[in-house]
Amino acid sequence: MVGLAVTGSGCADAKPADSNADTATATATPWTPEVAEELRAMGTVDQEVREGVGPETLADSAFMGRMIRADSANSRRLRDLIAEHGWPRSADVGPDAAEGAFLIVQHTPFEDWQRDMLSTIEEAVRSGELDAQSYALLYDRVQTKLGRPQKYGTQLSPTGEGTLRLDSLGNPEAVDSLRAELGMPPLEEYLRVVEEAYRMEVVR
Fold it and tell me: How far lies 89's CA from each of 10, 81, 136, 142, in Å?
């Protein structure tokens, strides 16, 4: 996974539809196969609306609008599902649906909810439900949305000139060691992957 910060630019203060809890309580309702399939389908939509992301589509307001609408709908529904069932574990919903849930959180335009979910994602990583890179991606995304330097170097933003810029790093000298602690490759290797994936040069 790579961290391209292209979602929710106009939705900083928006929130998902009414829900009384961000995480499940001990009375959570078990996940059913039908709801697990719904979640898997939501994860598929998350990726489908991102197919073809590159210099042209990032400048296409219709493309970006479709992405934000899908992210908003997915976020509202996932928040409701988590409130009812708890965080979706692979054993309950399957690995594809569980991964899709993380991607929805990562891509949500609802920044308050995204911040609230960081501790849930951290716990999912500690329990082995998600890999450590997931935490790094979300931690950095939350920090950059708050206007703060990122820690792991996962987030980049379009420059508007057909290139990507690495968002500010808090400790550039230590970034590779911090990434290594989470089993992530060195930053320069990651940036090469980003350039290949999005067909865009990364500038500093």
Answer: 31, 12, 19, 23
DSSP helix/strand/coil, 162: coil
Six-digit token string for 187: 């930053």
DSSP state letters, 82-148: HHHH-S--HHHH-HHHHHHHHHHHHH-S-HHHHHHHHHHHHHHHHTTSS-HHHHHHHHHHHHHHTT-
> Tell me: the pLDDT tens digits for 53-74?
999 999 999 999 999 999 999 9
How is 3-54 classified by DSSP, letter by letter?
A: EE--S-TT-TT--PSP-S-SS--TTPPPP-HHHHHHHHHHHHHHHHTTTT-S
Q: Is 153 left (phi over 0), alpha (psi -120 to 50) or beta?
A: left
The model's pLDDT over 79-133, given as tens digits with 9 standing for 90+, comes to: 999 999 999 999 999 999 999 999 999 999 999 999 999 999 999 999 999 999 9
Measured over the CA atoms of residue 9, residue 15, residue 17 and residue 23, the dihedral's sign is positive
Boundaries of every domain in the chain: 33-145, 155-203
CA distances from 85 to 23, 29, 30, 88 (A): 8, 5, 6, 7
Contact (Cβ atoms closer than 8 angstroms) between residue 102 and residue 90: no
Other Cβ atoms within 10 Å of 127 Cβ, number: 10
* Residues 153 and 140: beta-carbon distance below 8 Å: yes
